[in-house]
Amino acid sequence: EEDEEENFIKNNYIARTLLNEPELPPITWLNWYKEVNWPQATLLCLEPLVALYGLFTTSFMWQTIIFTIIWYFLTGFGITAGYHRLFSHRSYEAKLPLRYFLLILGAGSVQGSAQWWSRGHRAHHRYTDTDLDPYSAHKGIFYSHIGWLLFKPRRKPGLVDISDLTNDKCIQWQHRNYISLAFFMAFVFPTLVCGLGWNDYRGGYFFAGVLRLVFVHHSTFCVNSLAHYLGDAPYDDRRTPRDHFFTALVTLGEGYHNFHHEFPSDYRNALKWFQYDPTKYLIEFFKLIKLANNLKEFPKNEIRKGRYTMAHKELNRFGQTIIWPKDNLNLPIITFEEYQELTKKNDNRLLILIAGFIHDVSHFIDSHPGGRTIIKSYIGKDATVAFYGGIHDHNTAAHNILAMMRVAICKYGGEVEYIKKRLGHIQTPTPIFA
Amino acid sequence: EEDEEENFIKNNYIARTLLNEPELPPITWLNWYKEVNWPQATLLCLEPLVALYGLFTTSFMWQTIIFTIIWYFLTGFGITAGYHRLFSHRSYEAKLPLRYFLLILGAGSVQGSAQWWSRGHRAHHRYTDTDLDPYSAHKGIFYSHIGWLLFKPRRKPGLVDISDLTNDKCIQWQHRNYISLAFFMAFVFPTLVCGLGWNDYRGGYFFAGVLRLVFVHHSTFCVNSLAHYLGDAPYDDRRTPRDHFFTALVTLGEGYHNFHHEFPSDYRNALKWFQYDPTKYLIEFFKLIKLANNLKEFPKNEIRKGRYTMAHKELNRFGQTIIWPKDNLNLPIITFEEYQELTKKNDNRLLILIAGFIHDVSHFIDSHPGGRTIIKSYIGKDATVAFYGGIHDHNTAAHNILAMMRVAICKYGGEVEYIKKRLGHIQTPTPIFA
Ligand code: HEM
Ligand code: HEM
Ligand SMILES: [Fe+2]
Ligand SMILES: [Fe+2]
Ligand SMILES: [Fe+2]
Ligand SMILES: [Fe+2]
After folding, report:
1. Atom 18, ligand 2: which residue's CA is nearest?
2. Which of A263, A277, A408, B412 is the most buried (most CB within 10 A)?
3. Kind and range of the H or E element at B94?
4. In this structure, which ligand is nearest to the CA of A306?
5. Cβ distance B111 to B88 under 8 Å?
6. Whose CA is nearest to atom 21 of ligand 2?
7. In the predicted model, is pLDDT for residue B83 greater than 60?
């Protein structure tokens, strides 16, 4: 057994790595301030405060409000259509202009460079729910939402291959210029648009800049927190990812996360027309205007297998809440004559023979839809033919109810005199020496 | 075989009866006027015309409109809670005053006496979809809706037991006085209420009397027509009854007809809170005011069995739309060395050994979420450990996709030199005479 354990660890990258690589000590009330990632924590805690201050001190201009919403969607799509579906998952191919466009917008979401983001995200997919997953759902909803950014990670995220990204010029350009790009797109650009456009520099900064950033941040964070807690698992339930409309609504369509983890390089997150996945439509639009191609889809057949398997699991769980007929092997076997004898005893047990089984209908007879009398007249007789259409061709429910009342098996299945006679004949040993 | 056929007919009441009892000839363009049930046909065809005439010649009073709706519900409940669930199905017990109340209201729906109605309805349940069912759905939606009333029935409906009804004083009283009761409740009473109440005799007659009757009639008829065509079969699909919200809406809750045929003596037609079954609530109200008791319910466990079985059927149908891996028995068996040889040939077939099977990944490799290179490096080797967590612990979808690409079985399951050596040793025959 120890051998087996050892063998497993040797052959399992995750087990091996967790065992051999160092881990920082847990965060406690004594050491927490040393473990905080101060630059990130400051940014993430300050931005909602600045946004609140802006909300209370700045007057609203409808143009700014509209631009804020647009800018929320655009920088958000930079993450969902760009960082996530294009760069992390290669779920489609994009022409150069589109790649730059998405990288620049993505920078405006201030979530690190596409290379850094994808490196972590690939580890999240490859090591989902383990300690090599940088935002493992098993560490709690707070940690997977924002905690992993506020504190220094306890471990290096698991090994992943990002050679495609390190060899990509656009990605490298964005990686090198990330800080200035992010600062410009997140704050300078929206301030300028609102300022030069309708002279609302202040609104541009506070609303389209900071407030919008708060929403974009927590929207993306929800994919790591909510999407691993809320909803159901229609494709696979081995791990935590879940599908939910609400998560989709607040994440530009990334909320069908059970599907996404099962089929990560599919450019879609939602398959059904009634599910909300604007990022999918955007990618289809990119294709329409010839900026994207080779949109990847997992084969329908394999997607159905997931649905089928999960539906089967659920149905089996439902089946286990049902009481099924008792095991026939434990029923006593009695002869037809013994059965008749039993029904003559005056002990209020009403026995009826149907299809080889003897049933105790004492508790059922009064609720029989066909009435008490008709069953009563068959007590002690073989009611098989009557039950199967001789008198009434019973529905499926009747057969189910009947099976619940089995108390014995009737030898030879019933009153079959001619079979018994034949058997008797055969069983009489033919004398060898007459 | 002929013997079997004969035996079946002898032992099946329906088959026997259909064979032995006379049937009227089919209705044709030549004989139809002789086959019409003139009194019923006249009533049923005239009433919508009279209602229309009334609609165009009578002014509306809101009191009359309200009373018409109330009278529609009351006389309708006379049928659903009275004729149907109480008298035909004995799904609850009712005190004398309630029995009279329901019988009087039911008469106002002009659908025959409760005894006549229940006799036909019991035959409908016992012989559903056969020619002994007076309004068999297999005779078409027109026939089951109203045709069976317009023409003389082609056969006597199948035998049923109505001794409980013929022994019931209330039922017999209503049966004897049916014509006058019906006339009074359908036309005189609503005319008087509206006339004496707010001096709208004309509206009372045309709206609360005739128009309301048209609606009550076709509402009941829909239970025999629509409810056997429209909707799904969540409890059993051996026969035509179906569940549908729309049918329920137009029939005071009798539209969950698949449930009802499966569990006919249940006082409910609908189980779920979101389903529309006002008749059920009315019966529960009767119980509350102590006019009804012993409300019958089929055991939840047996109801679940129906749902379970049908869900299983549907899931199996879904499973049959899926392409599953090929039968392993037909795969060729090759040795590990042969496998390696094959991968060296330059015929663009990329073969990879995982878990004892050799897979052709030529068409898959470019869409591998983990990239082309990593798979490429395992061509011609045993990738079992890598695929099962040595490098990446693949998700369920990956296992499903993998199984679709099997092209051969690897002898001994893979490169297991020490097993091969051992087997070689054992297989060397020990000489018997040395
Ligand atoms: C002892 C086990 C029995 C069970 C569990 C049972 C159950 C049922 C059930 C659930 C129904 C309503 C559903 C349907 O119409 O198929 C029914 C109806 C009926 N049963 Fe049975 N039954 C039993 C025995 C019998 C026997 C032995 C007879 C006749 C000899 C019989 C005669 C009828 C008739 C005539 C009806 C139709 C009632 C009507 O719709 O008016 N039943 N039974
Ligand atoms: C030949 C059959 C193979 C199939 C059908 C297959 C299928 C898949 C699928 C569906 C995924 C995405 C889902 C998931 O993350 O589990 C995936 C990911 C991955 N596969 Fe495979 N795979 C195969 C072979 C291999 C082999 C032989 C290796 C390594 C030696 C490998 C390494 C990986 C890695 C590292 C990932 C994670 C990619 C990421 O999330 O960045 N695969 N594979
Ligand atoms: Fe995730
Ligand atoms: Fe992802
Ligand atoms: Fe029916
Ligand atoms: Fe019924």
Report:
1. B370
2. A263
3. strand B93-94
4. 2
5. no
6. B370
7. yes
* Poorest-pLDDT segment among A8-12, A238-242, B295-299, B373-377: A8-12
Average pLDDT over residues B306-332: 95
Whether residue B203 contacts residue B194, with contact meaning beta carbons closer than 8 Å, is answered with yes
**Cβ <8 Å between A304 and B321:** yes
Once rounded to an integer, what is the mean pLDDT over residues B331-346?
92
- Cα–Cα distance, B366 to B371 (Å, whole number): 7
Tell me the two tokens of residue B1. 């075989």
- Exposed, middle or buried by CB within 10 Å (0-12, 13-18, 19+), for B263? buried
- Chain centroid, CA A137 distance in Å: 13
pLDDT grade, residue A10 (50/70/90)?
confident
3-state secondary structure of B267: coil
Q: What is the pLDDT of residue B434?
A: 56
- pLDDT for B34-72, tens place per residue? 999 999 999 999 999 999 999 999 999 999 999 999 999
Q: List, chain by chain if needed, residues with CB within 6 Å of any ligand 1 atom.
A: A 352, 359, 361, 364, 368-370, 374-375, 378, 383, 386-387, 391-392, 394-395, 397-398, 401-402; B 122, 125-126, 160, 264
What's the token pair of residue A335? 């002869």
How far is B100 from B114, CA to CA, in rounded Å? 11
Beta strands A93-94 and A292-293 are: antiparallel
Give the rounded percent of residues in chain B with a pLDDT score beyond 70: 95
DSSP-assigned letters across all residues of A374-427: HHHTTTTSB-HHHHBTTS-B--HHHHHHHHTTEEEEEGGGS--HHHHHHHHHHH
Q: What is the pLDDT of residues A254-304, one digit of tens each?
A: 999 999 999 999 999 999 999 999 999 999 999 999 999 999 999 999 999
* Closest to A236 (Cα-Cα) out of A299, A302, A167, A300: A302
Instruction: Give the separation between CA A185 and CA A107, rounded to whole angstroms.
Output: 7
Per-residue model confidence (pLDDT) at position B6: 81
Partners of residue A398 in chain B, C-beta under 8 Å: none
Alpha carbon distance B317, A408 (integer Å): 36
pLDDT over 80 (residue A27): yes
**ipTM score of the complex?**
0.87
Ligand 1 pocket: which of A394, A401, A404, A405 to mutate (most atoms within 8 A of CB): A394
A126–B13 CB contact, under 8 Å? no
Angle separating helix axes A300-320 and B300-320, nearest 10 degrees:
160
| Residue B391 CB less than 6 A away from ligand 2 | yes
Give SS3 for A319.
helix
This prediction's pTM: 0.87
Distance from the Cα of A160 to chain B's closest Cα (Å) equals: 9
Q: What is the pLDDT of residues B402-411, one digit of tens each?
A: 999 999 999 9
Interface check for B263 against chain A (CB to CB < 8 A): the answer is yes
Q: Which residues of A touch B89 (CB under 8 A)?
A: 369
Whether A383 contacts A351, CB under 8 Å: no
Rounded CA-CA distance A285/B25 in Å is 66
H or E, element range at B334:
strand B333-334
Instruction: Report yes or no: B47 and B182 within 8 Å, Cβ to Cβ.
Output: no
Q: What pLDDT shows up at residue B346?
A: 75
What distance in Å separates the CA atoms of residue A156 and residue A123, rounded to the nearest whole number? 10
| The predicted structure's pLDDT at residue B345 | 85
Residue A350: phi and psi, rounded to 5, are: -95, 110
